[in-house]
Amino acid sequence: MKKLLAVSLMAVVASSAFASAQCPAQPKDKWQKEADFKKQLEGQGYQIKKFKVSGNCYEIYGKNKDGKKVEIYFDPVSGKPVKSDIES
Question: Could you tell me the pTM of the whole model?
Fold first, then answer.
């Protein structure tokens, strides 16, 4: 029983660690255009290696203006980050 509980707890912790960001569902016609949004981020100093739509979010992989690796999820309407992972 203890072993089953431990395995179940590890599965919950692992799944929450890999959960993607949650952006509210909004009509696509309200989203910022991908090309415009990328230009805006590049203007802020981001070097984008990969840009994709992840659920209801825009997601980038690349480097910030300080050269640190980043993975950031953005609300595609407001453009605000909703989740980020920045190299220390």
Answer: 0.76
